[in-house]
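pls ignore typos typing on phone
pyridoxal-5'-phosphate + seq
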Amino acid sequence: MLDIRITKTEHPKEKPSGKLGFGKVFTDHMFIMNYEEGKGWFDPRIEPFHNLSLSPATMVFHYAQEMFEGLKAYKGVDGNNYCFRPDMNARRTNLSNKRLCIPQIPEEDFVQAVTTLVSVDADWIPTEPGTSLYIRPFIIATDAFLGVAVSKTYLFMIILSPSGAYYESGLDPVGIWIEDDYVRAVRGGMGFAKTGGNYAASLIGQEKAHNDGYAQVLWLDGVERKYIEEVGSMNIFFKIDGKIVTPMLNGSILPGITRDSVIRICKDWGFEVEERKISVDELLEAQQNGKLEEVFGTGTAAVISPVGKLRYKDDVMTIGDGKTGEISHKLYETVTGIQLGKLEDKYGWRVKI
Ligand SMILES: *Cc1c(COP(=O)(O)O)cnc(C)c1O
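k done
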């Protein structure tokens, strides 16, 4: 149990009015906790949101020893505030930390830090349909040292950003570019960790996709560039001939919490769910035989993102006439229904703040 010292701001900011975008507006407070070798994590505190002062030699700027998480807080239909499976973010934090030689954080401390900060800034949780308070926990290596080594000091911080509805008028299928040249991650690398370096590696593919009018990139495996991995910040699912199929977690794919939830729900609905290797060739063939019934991405931001078009080299596959599939729609309604308390939470995923 953390003993969190809370210093409230004397100058609360004006809440944003009008349309909320994503990730540009921050709340009044932030959480900070220090780490020093030999001392462990110490001085957990909530302070007014402020800039940091760091040496230009700070390790994270040079060698990217850092990790981050992403989750949301919502205003439930009963007027209470909720988070969705924050224990999973805590667990994944330590998975990322282990890979990046960052010290572990007790899972209950992580969850306590998140829920305490959200409580302090609870009046920043937006209430319009589809909106939420985005929560961004992250850890950076802070030794001022240019040698390549594991840092002995860290900062664990959490910032909050009210964010607008991802879909303004119903689910909107996106076009996805299957990248056949660049790769995002390889087995043995850090694809399974939520860390900035993976995103730095992915920007160039995203640029290519955007330049060609596609919303997102679908990455292939780093060795043969043949098997489907995941989308920029989402996991990917296919409905092929009645079955739900998604790439297995192989070390280079991020283990999404939405992915885990969707698998669970689909199994409960009686679907056969296969976590396995899926080649692009299999998709092209399924498409030609009329068996590629639905494609959708899963992630905290969009929850479910239907895919209407997939491009691979010279092939452009249109999926379900470019419209949102039935299962994609039903999954979106179910996951958001559980999050907001419109539906019974039989899995115990919703956490009251
Ligand atoms: C965060 C993330 C996801 C989605 O994970 P969720 O826990 O469902 O939000 C998928 N892929 C990558 C690369 C990610 O960083």
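The CA atoms of residues 262 and 268 lie 10 Å apart. The chain has a mean pLDDT of 96. more later
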